[in-house]
């Protein structure tokens, strides 16, 4: 069985490396080609690579694990928020960002903000780049965690060793293909991910005795199928099966915390870059439809896999806690499918993890190499020097991501939860105001960005533990206070100069 798993996953990994090699010639032509693919992405690649890079191993492990542990409520409200956020981001932001970034010649998100406000001292650029590193490093670490959990369970080997192997693999093909190779492989990985989810969903339903049997079993667990209550395990019986007590109510704060996940999309660099990289803004309408359908199918399948898993393996993780339930997708796959096919389906987890980690790495490295090294310290650096420095930074960031991944029995969902809030609050409000409010000033941009990042961190570690109304997901207060800071500081400072207003008017005109 292990040999068959290895064959399937090796074939998959070889295909990904092959894509990187195929794209390497075009990707290494210059910095714009390496960081944004020369703005040549088609609508399908743009849409599906954006969503694959966004969802990460969280989709196939974190979300099913959450649904398995506490039922429909937590996972369901989060999925609703994400689906709404996906659609609105493509609808509201994509076309204007594509047009604006081309007008000012921006090839990264920090570069966009810097050039949008025509800054000379590069303070905004440096702050944006540093905040990307702060929040993307744990995000990349969560992806390595997914790979480590996958391989260690499949092959019974050391989790830490598997994290190292996954890190080397991701580095190798990110080195080769840059943004173009990453986007092409992410397109393939999006297909693998959704096929894996649908396959396990239908086979799991059949093995559980049909949808009726799953629903009947789930109804016996208090609050498991409710959107307004969540199941709570209170103990374990003599047979090792979980004992459930009264369900916990899903009040306004937990529901809001789930829905507010959608706000994060407005600040996600891995998605926003796809808007900037598409070859023609007219194709973004098709991209929006493709992305929304993919997200709806994938999120729904992931949640119901967790619910079906509770019927099939009710006591599998009863004594271990929530962190171990993230393996339910792997457990169902390896128990229900022939080994060779199980290996291919599990490649979906690998696809989810590496499609995100490569994006996080490249965005983080570009933030330092292109924006700080080239933009501030060595403005006359050649494209070759920039790309060499980028690869050095890639290795350094990956080492930190590995420390996150091996830093204890952490839950993938929790790490993604924190990083998502930080990025969403740091860049989301500023992106919206930059595109839709002409009066936004340079000082307001700095104030909003810093406020969003700082509030997300402080709220997560110091305020949320107080409970009650303070337990709301940190993205909500951080996004709100960032928006307030942008408006207040912009109104208190001098309006933008003529060149900035001309850029805005040009973009608004749609020429």
Write the layout of secondary structure elements.
Blueprint lengths: L1 H26 L3 H6 L6 H28 L1 H33 L4 H8 L6 H33 L3 H49 L3 H9 L9 E2 L2 E4 L5 E3 L3 E2 L2 H8 L9 H9 L6 H29 L15 H9 L2 H39 L5 H23 L6 H25 L5 H22 L11 H18 L5 H12 L2
Antiparallel strand pairs: 1-4, 2-3
Helix pairs in contact: 1-7, 1-13, 3-4, 3-6, 3-7, 3-10, 3-11, 3-13, 4-9, 4-10, 4-11, 4-18, 5-6, 6-7, 6-13, 6-14, 6-15, 6-16, 7-11, 7-12, 7-13, 7-14, 8-11, 12-13, 13-14, 15-16, 15-17, 16-17
Distance from N terminus to C terminus (CA atoms, Å) equals: 59 Å
| Annotated CATH homologous superfamily | Sodium/glucose cotransporter
The CATH architecture designation is Up-down Bundle
Largest sheet: 2 strands, antiparallel
Number of domains: 1
Main β-sheet, spatial strand arrangement: 1-4
> For this structure, what is the CATH class?
Mainly Alpha
How would you portray this structure in words?
With 511 residues, this protein is mostly helical. It has a single domain, classed as Sodium/glucose cotransporter. 76% of the residues lie in helices and 2% in strands. It is built from 18 helices and 4 strands. The chain has helices at residues 2-27, 31-36, 43-70, 72-104, 109-116, 123-155, 159-207, 211-219, 252-259, 269-277, 284-312, 328-336, 339-377, 383-405, 412-436, 442-463, 475-492, 498-509, and strands at residues 229-230, 233-236, 242-244, 248-249. A two-stranded antiparallel sheet has the order 1-4. A two-stranded antiparallel sheet has the order 2-3. The chain is globular. 56% of the residues are buried.
